[in-house]
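To assess whether ligand presence alters the predicted conformation, the chain was also submitted together with FE2/S2 (inorganic) cluster. Input:
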Amino acid sequence: MKKKLENRREFLKKVCPTIAFAFFGLSFLEACSTGDDSDNDNSGGNDQNGGSDNNDNNNNNPLGFSSSGSIFTIDLTHPNFSNLSSVGGWMNGYSIGLSMLFLRISSDHIQAYTNVCPHQGTQNQWSLQSGNIFRCANHNYSFDSTCETSSSLPCYSTNIDGDNLIVAT
Ligand code: FES
């Protein structure tokens, strides 16, 4: 019995991790550990909230944004946000899983809004009309973009920090 266990251990040492994984699946990878792996992960990691909250550069951020709690960091150099490069440019984040509308209102300010229509919650039928009026095509209600009137879409606080737009929701 003991001999059988040793044979199994030797086998796993020889084939780990690739072949063992192929044969036995993920649970067997733990059996490959010798206990002296000093380079095992978990060092220096930031807090995680679902795997999308690393504000560091690019490849960890395939959609061009990340979040940490209620703070969103938008990479303005990412192609998903190219519409915001010039004043008057706007976009709906709906297609990339971001529940926000954006409108660049000046060279140094991009306003962010909820994209949840105050009427009945539609998120994906927005257009920007002349006078910077957002209209939801579901029932054709219009909303002011100034963040200052009772008919404004609810707005979020924003700040441009280098290439990033920081949004506090
Ligand atoms: S849900 Fe937007 S106008 Fe009705």
